[in-house]
Design a protein that fits this description.
Layout: H1 2-17, E1 26-33, E2 36-43, H2 50-55, H3 73-84, E3 88-93, E4 99-106
Antiparallel strand pairs: 1-2, 2-4, 3-4
């Protein structure tokens, strides 16, 4: 499960966040306390506007359909975290300031 979560987050950063820059940085911080795992995932990509953030976890939503993207990556992350594990995921972003995903789940 964690492999799928990180694979989709990293691919999302590469395909969408870093597509207009030559290099990018991803930071992953995890904290486990009293049965609660908190994962903070950040990239320094191009960020997202409000409309994209509101739809990012929707099935088949993508800003790169013309490049053959399915729009399932972030939906899979949401499904694994929320529906299958009972956790929560939050996204924070602004155009030009990268993206941050905060995942909280009982383990």
């Amino acid at each position: 499960m964690f492999f799928q979560i990180f694979e989709n987050l990293i691919m999302n950063s590469i395909v969408h966040g870093f597509d207009e820059q030559e290099e990018g940085r991803i930071e992953i911080d995890a904290n486990y306390d009293n049965g609660l795992l908190t994962i903070n995932y950040k990239d320094n990509g191009k960020g997202m506007d409000k409309e994209t953030m509101e739809q990012i976890f929707d099935q088949f939503f993508t800003t790169k359909k013309e490049r053959g993207n399915s729009g399932l990556g972030m939906y899979i992350v949401y499904d694994l975290v929320v529906n299958q594990s009972g956790g929560k995921i939050e996204v924070n972003s602004k155009r030009g300031e990268g993206a941050e995903f905060i995942i909280k789940m009982k383990v």
